[in-house]
Amino acid sequence: MDTFSTIGLPGRGSGRTDAWNSLWATQMSRCGFMPVDKGHFDAELRIGVMGPLKLAHLSVDHCSVERSQSDIIKSGSRAYNFLLQAYGTSTFFHCGHQSRLGEGDFVLCNTAMPHYWEADGPSTTIMVRVEPEVLREYLPTPEQFCGLHLGRAIGFADTAGAMVRSLTGQVQSGGSTAQESQVAGYLLETISLSYMMAHADGSKGSAVVWQRHRDIVQHIEAHLRDPDLSPGSIASGLRLTPRYLRTIFSASGERISAYVLRRRLEECARQMRNPAWNGHTLTEIAFSWGFNSAAHFTRSFHDHYGVAPRAYRRLQEVSGDV
Predict the structure, then answer these.
(1) Strand ranges inside 185-232, DSSP E
(2) What are the structural domains of the chain?
């Protein structure tokens, strides 16, 4: 198992973080780590292989991590990660979902889609990385489960978590088995079955409908910052009729325009909670996420969160909730 650490990296403060981001991009996927304490940041990554799986054990100080659309464009990495919260608590934002993770919980991530992870303090996670064609042997439509929470008490998730920890420890100690691919298959089957048990209602329906719905969500997430994003532009971009677009998306129980507004508000609120954005005005944050009217943003934010943006930000600063 290869080990990488911030210890010995050049620079201090933001320089060390930049060096870590560069290292992470070469070993995993291009993204940005943002420590809460900009003057001090420690992290350690241990990587090993178990058959077709890449196991990545990450321990970090209090921080957040974002993989943006620009990171995806610049990086050719395309894979799925089952992220296990091994120590601490965190929140994962992905594909329009917000998953609160406690120890032993999983969340599925598609590295080809933007995502954001926010730790509540020092944290340890273990990522099980698998190529799309391998995962689809066990989970035919993984896209529909991306960003969804899998609690440790659901299905066989607790067993899967124990397997992930055990396999990571075995790889770390240098142990190996001639049946690595078979063991990896058991793990993928266990996690996949647990996901299907946890979200049985969502797994029903036509695979074609799910594929179309996934395409719509991916298009929205990729263009969320575009102020011209609308049902019409989405239909045009995906070469669908507006009526068919509405029919496909209606299965989610939310109108497309409502989904776009909610996601923009969620991203604005996320940045307002993040101390790294304290130097940016509320208008700058809102406009960077596709709003073109400060009044509309303020009104919509109040309707969604029950408090004005300025008061929301002030409450986060007082509570220290990042």
Answers:
(1) none
(2) 2-198 (2.60.120.10), 207-319 (1.10.10.60)
Tens-place pLDDT, residues 276-291: 888 899 999 999 999 9
Question: What is the residue whose two structure tokens read 């990495």?
Answer: 77
Q: How far is CA 150 from CA 68, 79, 101, in A?
A: 24, 19, 9
Longest CA–CA span in the chain (Å) reads 63
Residue 137: how many other CB atoms lie within 10 Å: 13
Is 315's pLDDT higher than 80?
yes
Helix crossing, 207-222 with 256-273: angle to 10°? 50
Contacts of 231 (CB under 8 A, 6+ apart): 242, 245, 246, 256, 257
- Helices 231-238, 207-222: axis angle to 10 degrees equals 120
85-127 tens-digit pLDDT = 999 999 999 998 999 999 999 999 999 999 999 999 999 999 9
Specify the pLDDT at position 104.
Answer: 98
Q: CA 214 to CA 208: how far, in whole Å?
A: 10
Strand partners, 146: 108
Cβ-Cβ contacts under 8 Å for 91 (sequence gap 6 or more): 98, 99, 100, 101, 117, 118, 120
Helix, coil or strand: residue 81: strand
